[in-house]
Amino acid sequence: MLEKVLKVGFPTNDEINVEEHFGHCKKFVVYSIKEGEITQKDILESPEHAPGVFPKFIKANNINVVITGGMGQRAIDLIKENGCQVILGAAGNIKEVLNNYLSGGLYSKGSPCTHNEAEHECEH
């Protein structure tokens, strides 16, 4: 029987810290987890920032969980339609956030982003 591999993705600009704004990231760090252990780490270039592009990117890369600082409601809905979990309100070092998630200590907090490029009203 094949063991399921969980893929956890983090938007980032520096490959170290979680990016506050999902749509502004330059890269995605994706960890593959099997039986609670990290088996692989991939650095992916983010796609262009356009409606519907990120959800397709996440689905194409078989990412099961996206952990980010903030994300708009439309992006959340589109990503969840593909069966992916979204966790909001994360900040700091990606590896520390991942370990917190794997130990069961990370929960979505904050609200979806409700701003455009000119304003900022997020709770993250």
Automatic annotation (TrEMBL):
Pfam families in the cross-refs: Nitro_FeMo-Co
Looking up InterPro entries in the UniProt record yields: Di-Nase_FeMo-co_biosynth (IPR003731), DiNase_FeMo-co_biosyn_sf (IPR036105), MTH1175_dom (IPR033913)
Residues of the Dinitrogenase iron-molybdenum cofactor biosynthesis domain: 15-102
What name appears for this protein in its UniProt entry?
A: Dinitrogenase iron-molybdenum cofactor biosynthesis domain-containing protein
